[in-house]
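Self-study notes.
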Amino acid sequence: VVAAMTMPSLVQNYKNKQTVAQLKKIYSVLSQATVMAESENGPISDWNMVDGSCESMDEIVSFYTPYLKTLKDCKQSKGCWATTTIKGLSGTTNRLDEFSGSFDCAKHSIALTDGTYIVFDIYSDLGIQNDMPNDINSTMAFFVDLNGQKNPNVVGKDIFAFALTKHGIAPAGIHTNSVQCSRELKNANSGIDCAAKVLKEEDLKY
């Protein structure tokens, strides 16, 4: 009886620790790739990031791919993002569900050798729901699915977001205390800025 009561909690704790470790890893990978890309291509503040521009996307992705262990470059096709419906913490369909199909050339998707999926997207509003510092004209957002096609495919559980600032990569939510990392937020942004909270607390406390 005791085992039956405690086993689910132990399993969940293990999964949470695994998620934290994976999130730390991709944060490090993206941070290091950014440092290398900047050393090769000049300051981030000088990069030509234009929202909706296919040319800008191709250029910035080319800055990163030499420093990422890419298994597959899907570009705008299926194969580097989950095909099931992407949910937020509240259970509502998340805005990142748009990546479940093909999309336009102003976005780009790749799969890494460790199973992580990444979608690159440029934003003119300086970050993910305006939680990034206003220090560059536009910013690249990195949406990562830590375990590819595997479940749960929930933003804030196995899908997280990062954004580029002139100082490097920042986890979404770092400037707003992850206010959208909530099960109570019944809209398409539920869970979108959990990365900062998880990295800070080293747990999924929600």
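Second protein, same conventions, sequence then structure:
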Amino acid sequence: MSFLQAASKLAAPASDHGRRITFAACVEYGTLEEGTIRLVESLRAFGGEFANARFVAVTPRGGAKLQASTLRRFAELDVDYVRINPRNRYVWQPYLNKYFALKEAEKRATGDLVAWVDSDVLFMRPPSEMLLRPDEDFGACPRDKN
């Protein structure tokens, strides 16, 4: 049993917070597969009341299919995986895939919040800061260009 598997047994059961939020990320063949698996493992292990929150992983453009081992691990981690190939006349725009992935994740969300998380993120504690306060409609963290 890995460390993450052992830690996940300590994860708190889903609360109202965990049911309110759906996490979403892009996943594509290659290093993003490993990163997305680690991302979800860390949420399941250290997410506390968010540990069992819905997670949607989207492949938002053409390319090689994910490895069978990734799809098996997604099933074990209860990840809703979907592959889409939207009509995109701006294929030269490298970040537009996130828009299409988030749009798809929103369709599949079960709560009232959708939180985008890049695949290079690891959760080391419950992501309580991702919940919006009653006076907020949107939250974001600007990308650091430095």
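Instructor comment on the second fold: Residues 10-14 have pLDDT under 50 and may be disordered.
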